[in-house]
Automatic annotation (TrEMBL):
GO terms for molecular function: DNA binding; DNA-binding transcription factor activity, RNA polymerase II-specific; zinc ion binding. Residues 1-10 have a biased composition (Basic and acidic residues). PANTHER family: ASPERCRYPTIN BIOSYNTHESIS CLUSTER-SPECIFIC TRANSCRIPTION REGULATOR ATNN-RELATED, HYPOTHETICAL CONSERVED PROTEIN (EUROFUNG)-RELATED. Pfam families: Fungal_trans_2 (PF11951), Zn_clus (PF00172). Keywords: DNA-binding, Metal-binding, Nucleus, Transcription, Transcription regulation, Zinc. This is Zn(2)-C6 fungal-type domain-containing protein. The keyword Chaperone does not apply.
Length: 559
């Protein structure tokens, strides 16, 4: 029968698919396997040897020439899946919103939502764990921490509305929001005092550190930088005490993220408001020397690069603070009780050099080489970000690059005795402005925000005050004033105001593009009256006996 069918040119099709057929031979000749077009035909057209019009689910030609319905196409036989052995793993713990955020008054729920959705993700450029996990966990167990979270959320609604185009909390709503936030802040301070009084000094240090961060954050949000800096100083003393006891087995466990947050807080203070004792600077300028020696030639992760950069910046800033004889900028806060709080001022008894010039130069070169090594090790990661604007670490990488350039500029200025040396650093100024602009224009960057950490304002102070290229200087000032934002105790709009004053003083009476040394400002003082919002500026223009003092005023009462 099979031979007869072969002679007629027909093949008996098995029930399986055509693809599974084995080649059949006739007189030793291989029979051609059905091709793609043949496999498209349905059962009826194959049996009648007619062309299939490939209409699905039934061929129209088949229906016209046959009294029967089209039997349709072959169904592809899907092989039965073989079950694979799977290792059962425990489910990861899902992060759920703390219960205290779902209960309470309407103001508390709204403030908590504002904190979680808007404030916490923006407070730190590199350490979300503290603000989005540790603080919420502490608030779950301690009512006074919850009060602080509600206060931050309440103050942020007023801050955000003042930075937007007019929408948000205004008038009565603004007063009500501030009043509720102040009430929560008062409860937080009272609860903190009770907690400290009821616990031992060592047992409650971790929660005391968290409370310190909250106080600094809230005081900065309320434009009280003198209070924030004073509490920050106390917090750093506590961290130093913990570091001394860290080898003790009885010491309380402190998360690494919390310690790193205080390291960045230290940068805010030593970078601009130097109120620490010289002994502290001498100790911290040598911190982590062994780690620096083991720094890799190329960083593998952005986190690794960030930890090394924080350490290098701290070492360099404390070295400059320890060896400084004079400060270019001095800030004085006039308090409501009539007293004044000065920063960056050195007494006459401290003006004597602590090391010979030769030793200082050797140390200086060590810190310069460290930032160069870091920049080279960071090159691969930073190149990946530049080639991919949507890189998840784009903002953090750009921020780190700007900070490294700022540190290098600060070190370059440290041993200089003339304002003219800044002219040789124009490429570095251009890099700061370029990368800052790139960061501010990044889609993931939220404009008009408040951040706890040092960000772009401090680095942009460099070109606004020290760059004498008129076009680039104005571009840097525009970045600060275009969409005002705040970082720690810095306000971008206020910084731009001071920079404009210094720029106008230097350019007055100068007809050339180049600003000569006799017209450049070598030092200035900012006296802020906290009760009235008036700011009194005084700067020294020129050098030597020909230098003159120029004064001016600014009104910050409306900000």
């Amino acid at each position: 029968m099979e031979q007869k069918n072969l002679e007629r040119g027909e093949l008996m099709m098995p029930e399986s698919t055509v693809e599974n057929q084995k080649p059949v031979r006739k007189n030793g000749n291989r029979i051609k396997r059905p091709g793609p077009e043949e496999r498209k035909r349905n059962k009826t057209t194959k049996a009648r040897h007619v062309k299939c019009d490939e209409t699905r689910p039934a061929c129209l030609r088949c229906l016209r020439i046959s009294d029967e319905y089209c039997k349709g196409y072959e169904h592809t036989i899907i092989p039965r899946c073989v079950a694979e052995r799977r290792v059962l793993l425990p489910l990861s713990v899902l992060k759920a919103a703390p219960a205290f955020g779902r209960h309470g008054s309407q103001d508390e729920v709204g403030a908590f939502r504002a904190y979680c959705e808007k404030v916490a993700p923006r407070l730190s450029y590199s350490n979300d764990e503290v603000w989005q996990r540790l603080l919420l966990q502490a608030g779950q167990e301690n009512e006074f921490i919850r009060n602080a979270i509600f206060a931050i959320g309440g103050f942020s609604r007023r801050t955000d509305s003042s930075r937007t185009s007019g929408e948000g909390y205004t008038g009565i709503d603004a007063v009500k929001s501030d009043k509720a936030a102040l009430a929560q802040y008062g409860k937080f301070l009272e609860g903190t005092k009770k907690y400290i009084a009821s616990t031992g000094r060592k047992e409650g240090r971790r929660l005391a550190m968290i409370a310190c961060l909250l106080v600094v954050c809230i005081e900065n949000m309320q434009y009280r930088p003198h209070n924030a800096l004073r509490h920050a100083q106390q917090g750093l003393k506590l961290v130093d005490e913990i570091s001394e006891d860290e080898r003790s087995s009885s010491a309380e466990t402190i998360e690494t993220e919390l310690m790193q947050q205080f390291s960045r807080l230290d940068l805010q203070i030593v970078g601009c408001y130097d109120v620490q004792a010289k002994d502290v600077h001498r100790k911290l300028k040598g911190e982590g020397a062994n780690l620096i020696r083991e720094m890799p030639a190329s960083f593998s992760t952005i986190e690794e690069a960030g930890e090394y950069l924080d350490l290098i910046m701290r070492r360099a800033f404390h070295f400059m603070a320890y060896t400084n004889l004079v400060h270019k900028a001095q800030f004085k806060f006039g308090l409501e009780d009539g007293t004044s709080h000065k920063m960056l001022c050195i007494g006459d008894d401290e003006r004597q050099p602590r090391s010979t010039q030769f030793v200082v130069q050797i140390e200086h070169e060590i810190y310069v080489s460290e930032i160069r090594r870091w920049d080279k090790a960071f090159e691969r990661l930073f190149t990946e970000v530049l080639w991919n604007p949507n890189h998840p670490n784009a903002i953090r990488a750009l921020m780190m690059k700007v900070h490294s350039i700022t540190t290098a500029l600060s070190l370059a200025d440290h041993l200089s005795t003339s304002e003219l040396h800044w002219d040789d650093l124009l490429p570095e100024f251009r890099s700061i402005v370029y990368f800052s602009k790139k960061l501010l224009e990044h889609p993931a960057y939220v404009k008009g925000q408040f951040a706890f950490d040092m960000g772009l304002i401090y680095p942009l102070i460099m070109p606004t005050l020290n760059c004498r290229d008129r076009k680039l200087r104005r571009e840097a000032i525009d970045l600060l004033s275009e969409t005002p934002w705040r970082e720690a105790h810095w306000d971008s709009a206020h910084t731009a105001d001071v920079a404009k004053f210094v720029m106008q003083v230097e350019e007055e009476g100068v007809e050339t593009e180049f600003i000569p040394e006799w017209a450049r400002v070598s030092s200035f003082e900012v006296d802020i009256q906290m009760s009235t919002g008036m700011v009194y500026l005084s700067c020294l223009r020129g050098v030597g006996e020909a230098a003159v003092t120029v004064e001016g005023t600014l009104d910050w009462s409306g900000t």
